[in-house]
Amino acid sequence: MFDSLNLEKELKLKKIHSKYILCGNDENSIKGAVEKIKNIALNKDFEELNYTEIDGANLTLPQLINACETLPFMSEKRMVLIYRASFLKDHGDKAEEGRFKEIKEYIKNIPQECVLIMYYIFDNPREKESLKVKGLNKLAHVIKFEKLKGKSLEKKVEELFAERKVDISKSELAIFCNLVDTNLDILENEVEKLCTYAWDRKITRTDIQLLVTQKNENDIFNLVDYISQKKPDMAIDILDELIFKGEMITGILRMIQRQFKLLLNIKIGATQGKSKEVLSKELKLHPYICEKMISQSKKFTLKSIRNAIEKCLDTEKMLKSTSTNAKTEMELLIITVTTLL
Question: Which Gene3D superfamilies does the protein's record reference (predicted)?
Fold first, then answer.
């Protein structure tokens, strides 16, 4: 089993395999890896004719065979993506167990001109790869997407700055790593943002504090995303983590309010036909963050976003005017907003 850094090194050398299984907590990083593999495997001009996506929840063996055994058109390879492949998780229902056995047998001999990728997302940050996936390690190239940390994180970030020929000291590097989310796509975007801003001079602490999107902002994004998925228990887990890290509850509430206000502006802007570039400029958001929020806004209606903002304001008044348990009120807010969707 490999990690995302090993995969990245291989892709930089344009090396790809015929079968991949990707798993982890961060679907954005996994989707980014899929896109990189696709760019190497397929001719851009004929991509639509040689690329198939199938929802893992509805996959059938005949469907997989048809997708994999269709000959590539004007290309050496074709690519098949099975997303949200829940049959790769342990303890599935009978249908998923049967689907897994059929697919496990079939992928032993898929055509050499086909690149097959299957991925599934962990249900929580503490989840490990399934026993099924471990058992497929000899049949496919298995990649686990874990958050970078410690020395491995610092080394990776140092490489990103070095690739762009921009200097950063050890102390500034440590500050950057402490602040930024460890998602590889976010790391690259934050490094690119700093390098563009600093141009040909050394990165300073002021640059980092001014420009870097901090971890807690991404936590709030995920918290709101779990609300959109009607998973209040997962949203409350993030709330608990933020409190454990020392965030004040009033500060968390303000960040949630800000997230919903941004979603409201993005939703309204999108209905007016505004592009990502225009919204990014108007709302002073990094294009990558803006793109993520545009996707998130699609999970809400205008009414549900306005209701969420109203409930946030009600909770703020409650926290300021009574001696109620603040954490309980925040949990009630999350549950209430989820039920309004």
Answer: 1.10.8.60, 1.20.272.10, P-loop containing nucleotide triphosphate hydrolases (3.40.50.300)
What's the order of all strands across the beta sheet hosting 2-3? 2-3, 141-145, 19-24, 114-121, 78-83, 51-55
Q: Hey, is 181 helix, strand or coil?
A: coil
Give the model confidence (pLDDT) of 73-114 as tens digits: 999 999 999 998 999 999 878 888 999 999 999 999 999 999
For the purposes of burial, counting CB atoms within 10 Å of the CB of 200, is it exposed (0-12), middle (13-18) or buried (19 or more)?
A: exposed
How far separated are the first and last CA of the chain, in Å rounded? 39
Do the domains spanning 2-145 and 215-339 agree at the CATH topology level? no
Chain center to CA of 97: 27
For the chain, what is the largest distance between any 2 Cα atoms, rounded to a whole number of angstroms? 70
Token representation of residue 203: 């990165």
- CATH architecture of the region 215-339: Up-down Bundle (1.20)
Query: 148 and 182 in contact (C-beta within 8 Å)?
Result: yes
Tens of pLDDT, residue by residue over 186-228, are 788 889 999 999 888 999 999 998 888 666 677 888 899 899 9
- What is the mean predicted confidence (pLDDT) over 45-74? 94
Topology adopted by domain 150-211? Helicase, Ruva Protein; domain 3 (1.10.8)
Q: Which residue has the tokens 């059929």?
A: 102
pTM over the 0.85 mark? no
DSSP 8-state secondary structure symbol assigned to residue 334? H
**CATH node for 2-145:** 3.40.50.300
Q: Are 260 and 305 in contact (CB under 8 A)?
A: yes
What string of DSSP letters covers 100-167? Answer: HHHHHHHGGG--TTEEEEEEEE-SSTT----HHHHHTTTTSEEEEE----HHHHHHHHHHHHHHTT--
Alpha-carbon distances of 274 from 65, 69, 184, 228, 293, rounded to whole Å: 41, 41, 28, 23, 14
Those residues with Cβ within 8 angstroms of residue 87's Cβ, 6 or more apart along the chain or in another chain: 56, 59, 96, 97, 99, 100, 103
